[in-house]
Amino acid sequence: MVSKSDEDKIKYYSKDEGILSIMYHRFDENKYPSTNIKMDIFKEHMKIIKNSNFNFHNPNNFEEHFNIPKSKKEILLTI
To answer: 27 near 36, Cβ under 8 Å?
Structure first.
């Protein structure tokens, strides 16, 4: 059963492109392989993101803009 609240959310967010969040932990620190990324791979990630025309989401505005539907996919990088 779908509640009235769920119906309102579906209508409100149906065109929401959302925020993709990617978390990086370490760069070129081979001592920690499970949380490390090599810089050349990170640079490739940045190229892919740039070529995908995602908007970068400013983490300073995350809470303020979290509940606002996004008309274009946004990406949030955290390190």
So the answer is: yes
